[in-house]
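pls design
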């Protein structure tokens, strides 16, 4: 026990796993990929997977760390978010409680996964009785917004996201509503840096599908480019004010974008993270 166990959710954007899996492979003790046995999304839509992906996965997995967990993750009586939570809990149980359970979506790319796992191992005491001492470990998202001819627009201010837990009592997505420990680790999120058709697919099939005004969002998204992005604000697809502004970085691939981002400016200050962690410690002190 006390292993670093990584879980991925495999769906319509499965090809992005070719970017995300290699970034965590070396430090993971095991990787479990959840795939609906009927190839359905949380909204019940069908998708297809090319055989070549499984061939790539087999050739890449030189240390025999990767397994595919096939199950029925779609329940017609639940909405998309409820199906998401259900799948995440099923996947976490399969991964094995008593270990660090890290769930990563296919469009999430860790910049320094080794550092992230080192932070987890420093806190192995929370694995002794995980149900009694439930915590979440959060890093910080750099949300990619829109590709341009020679670069990308991204949300200027990183936002925290929960990635790991010792006990998977998920309530909404990966959020267990338990104590959060924030660490200075960046994850690039290829959130909206897709074609319009791909954005429509994403918004129609993910956990928040019932909350998104797709047409309203896309109307603004289409207007924005490298020449005018500084004029736009309030860009989030759920609560617009949570994404205040855009920044720009050159790069035509994820690896190039990752090299060109200025991480010291993106990572919140040490004081800010310590303050957040103290607040979480105090909030759950008597719970």
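designed seq:
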């Amino acid at each position: 026990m006390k292993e670093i166990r990584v879980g991925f959710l495999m769906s319509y954007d499965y090809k992005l796993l070719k970017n995300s899996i290699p970034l965590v492979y070396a430090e993971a003790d095991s990787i479990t990929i959840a795939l609906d046995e009927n190839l359905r999304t949380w909204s019940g839509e069908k998708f297809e997977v090319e055989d070549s992906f499984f061939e790539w996965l087999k050739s890449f997995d030189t240390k025999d760390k990767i397994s595919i967990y096939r199950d029925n993750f779609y329940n017609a009586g639940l909405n998309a978010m409820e199906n998401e939570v259900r799948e995440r809990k099923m996947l976490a149980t399969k991964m094995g409680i008593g270990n660090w359970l890290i769930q990563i979506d296919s469009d999430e790319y860790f910049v320094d996964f080794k550092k992230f796992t080192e932070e987890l191992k420093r806190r192995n005491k929370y694995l002794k009785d995980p149900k009694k001492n439930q915590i979440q470990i959060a890093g910080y998202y750099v949300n990619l917004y829109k590709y341009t001819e020679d670069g990308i627009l991204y949300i200027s201010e990183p936002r925290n996201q929960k990635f790991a837990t010792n006990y998977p009592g998920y309530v909404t997505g990966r959020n267990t509503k338990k104590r959060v420990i924030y660490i200075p680790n960046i994850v690039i999120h290829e959130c909206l840096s897709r074609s319009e058709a791909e954005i429509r697919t994403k918004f129609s099939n993910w956990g928040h599908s019932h909350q998104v005004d797709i047409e309203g969002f896309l109307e603004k998204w289409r207007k924005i480019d490298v020449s005018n992005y500084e004029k736009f604000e309030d860009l989030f697809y759920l609560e617009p004010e949570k994404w205040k502004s855009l920044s720009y970085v050159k790069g035509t691939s994820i690896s190039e974008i990752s090299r060109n981002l200025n991480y010291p400016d993106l990572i919140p200050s040490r004081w800010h993270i310590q303050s957040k962690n103290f607040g979480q410690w105090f909030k759950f002190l008597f719970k």
